[in-house]
Design brief:
alpha+beta; ten-stranded mixed sheet; EreA/ChaN-like  fold; globular
Length: 626
């Protein structure tokens, strides 16, 4: 009997263990029961399936839309569709993109008043991540919405990021010159470099690392400027207007954050993004409602732990969403967007880099958020996280750190396992949208990114330095003439106006609207090997036809070997900056001398034109000083 009883107990236990659900079973069942299918990602297809998202949003004033990478086409399209819904049905009227605060006003100029060209305006925000057909479609939709007289409340376009100082510095210095010329003269020698556009095609058009921009003197001067904005507000407003004062002060604040961010290992950036959002809402008034578009990392209500992300090695970093949630509480709704597999666009972070390309990844790894969502049979779906169970296996799963697919604007295929960002869904997002498969975003002009990290494709020796090898009216052989400059109306051609011989290089940009702070240049990059450990002399003849608001200059840059680290972000070994100006419409000789260290990798020389006008260069020589 005893043996029989034990057998019965064993069978009961086995039966019970077979029927007991695992945590994963509970979770996938709950997800399946609560997820709502999204019918399509493509905008212009109605809003019926988006109504549950609207119910979750309620009367919130801010909706932040994340993204797992900066290059999933269907993620961008779905966000566009959500933006249409929020504008048309929920009365949202402000859109803020993860792009420079100052330069975004050139897009708003088009969106609000139809001034300018949207393709050129997108080029002016520098970010390759949003220089895409998908974002262009969104901007064009905003313009069409604003043109419609049946829509009295217009949509406005803002930038929320603080990474690029050129426009901010230009606006700030111009304003100070108007209202406080003595202070402008005092700070310009130190802060004036921030408004110079170097627009390096090798660095996707952004400025090189300039250590002088982040020193204690720069920080001291910008802090003096910020104090002056407050202490002299009455006189500043009297010499301008309250609106001008508000805008100029916030542009100056971008510089303060930019300098502080670099000086403090990047910890200021997300706070600065949140501050720009708060400023914009205050500036637009109490009835304004904002849609925020940024990476999941930024929008999340998150404080990093030490091991949250291999690319961030410090604990306690507070993301933009953390600051906004602290300030706005339930008035902020955060929607994370995630994907399982497929294509996305990014810059190749391998060495040597393959530049801008399409990557393809398989299904997400076991234990990831995406793997669980696929097990719950989700494909294109929405999941509300705002009313989750307060305890039990569902809460336990949502409250634990989960790896999720991500990449920034960079990706290294050889380290694919590193590209998982830890998120805790219970506190970091109010909802999530999930797509099983994506394709890559479509750049407006892919050739704009053919020269990224040309550093690794430098010429063996100088070529066509007198431009005699090229035909009149054509691009000079052996020189980089960037397609993005051409999009902005710049011509970079061989001219018959020569200093010696029959030909020279001419850069010409006709007067017109400015887009961003992109300064046209033509460059050549050569191997530094023959010059290692030696002093060199760069000579050129040049002249320029510009007005007093702009300038041209000759530039020499010597950069280090990068076999063991990423190129972008390393300070140059030598940088002549904008010190060698090209002045006057008569030919002049310009000479730059520099030492080439033993660890140099490339030498780059270039002619630059800020804004509009014409510059010619000829008879270039680069020689070793014996």
């Amino acid at each position: 009997m005893r043996i029989k009883t034990n057998l019965i107990l064993l069978l009961v236990l086995l039966l019970f263990s077979c029927t007991e659900k695992s945590e994963e079973d509970h979770v996938t069942e709950w997800i399946s029961e609560n997820a709502i299918q999204i019918s399509t990602v493509k905008p212009g297809n109605g809003f019926e399936d988006l109504l549950p998202i609207g119910e979750m949003i309620g009367d919130a004033r801010i909706v932040s839309l994340g993204e797992p990478t900066h290059g999933n086409r269907e993620v961008f399209q779905l966000k566009h569709r959500l933006i249409e819904y929020l504008v048309v049905e929920k009365d949202f009227d402000i859109f803020a993109l993860e792009c420079p605060f100052g330069e975004a006003f050139d897009i708003n100029r088009y969106v609000l008043d139809g001034i300018g060209d949207p393709e050129k305006a997108i080029a002016g925000i520098y970010f390759w991540t949003y220089d895409t057909e998908e974002v262009l479609d969104l901007i064009k939709w905003m313009r069409l919405y604003n043109v419609n007289p049946e829509n009295p409340k217009k949509v406005k376009f803002y930038g929320l990021d603080v990474q690029d100082p050129q426009r901010a510095a230009r606006v700030m210095l111009a304003y100070l010159k108007k209202v406080d010329p003595n202070l402008e003269k005092k700070v310009r020698p130190e802060l004036g470099i921030l408004e110079v556009p170097f627009s390096d095609p090798k660095g996707v058009g952004r400025r090189q690392w300039i250590p002088e921009e982040y020193d204690s003197l720069s920080l001291n001067y910008i802090q003096k400027v910020m104090k002056a904005f407050d202490s002299k507000k009455e006189s500043y407003v009297a010499s301008s207007s309250l609106n001008e004062w508000l805008l100029a002060k916030q542009h100056a604040r971008q510089i303060e954050i930019y300098i502080s961010d670099a000086a403090n290992a990047g910890i200021e950036r997300d706070y600065g993004q949140a501050e720009n959002i708060r400023w914009t809402l205050d500036y637009e008034g109490v009835d304004s409602k904002m849609i925020v578009w940024a990476h999941n990392f930024h929008v999340a209500n998150m404080i990093l732990a030490e091991d949250d992300n291999e690319g961030v090695d410090y604990k306690g970093y507070k993301c933009m969403g953390f600051h906004l949630k602290k300030w706005y509480g339930d008035q902020l709704k955060i929607v994370g967007l995630f994907y399982n597999q497929g294509e996305f666009s990014a810059l190749d972070d391998n060495i040597p880099s393959a530049g801008f390309k399409t990557f393809n990844v398989g299904s997400a790894k076991h234990g990831s958020l995406e793997h669980t969502l696929i097990n719950a049979n989700l494909h294109n779906a929405y999941l509300d996280l705002s009313n989750i169970p307060k305890n039990g296996p569902i809460y336990d799963w949502l409250d634990k750190p989960l790896p999720t697919r991500y990449s920034w604007g960079f990706y290294n295929q050889s380290r694919s396992e590193d590209y998982y960002q830890i998120h805790k869904l219970s506190t970091e997002f109010d909802a999530l949208l999930f797509l099983d498969k994506t394709t890559a975003t479509v750049p407006i002009d892919k050739s704009d990114y053919d020269h990224i990290w040309l550093f690794n494709k430098k010429l063996e020796h100088p070529t066509n330095l007198n431009f005699e090898e090229s035909n009149i009216g054509e691009s000079p052989k052996g020189w980089i003439t960037w397609s993005k400059f051409k999009r902005l109306g710049v011509t970079m051609t061989t001219s018959d106006d020569a200093y010696s011989g029959n030909k020279s290089l001419m850069i010409h940009r006709p007067d017109g609207l400015a887009y961003g702070e992109i300064g046209a240049n033509v460059l050549q990059s050569i191997d530094a090997l023959p010059y290692l450990g030696k002093n060199i002399r760069l000579k050129a003849a040049a002249k320029a036809k510009t007005d007093s608001s702009t300038f041209a200059f000759l530039h020499l840059l010597i950069e280090a070997n990068t076999d063991d680290e990423t190129y972008v972000g390393n300070p140059p070994l030598f940088d002549s900056l904008d010190k060698f100006r090209i002045e006057g419409n008569e030919w002049q000789e310009i000479v730059i001398e520099a030492y080439v260290p033993e660890n140099a990798h490339s030498i780059t020389y270039s002619a630059h034109l800020r804004d509009f006008g014409t510059v010619w260069i000829d008879a270039i020589e680069i020689e070793i000083i014996e």
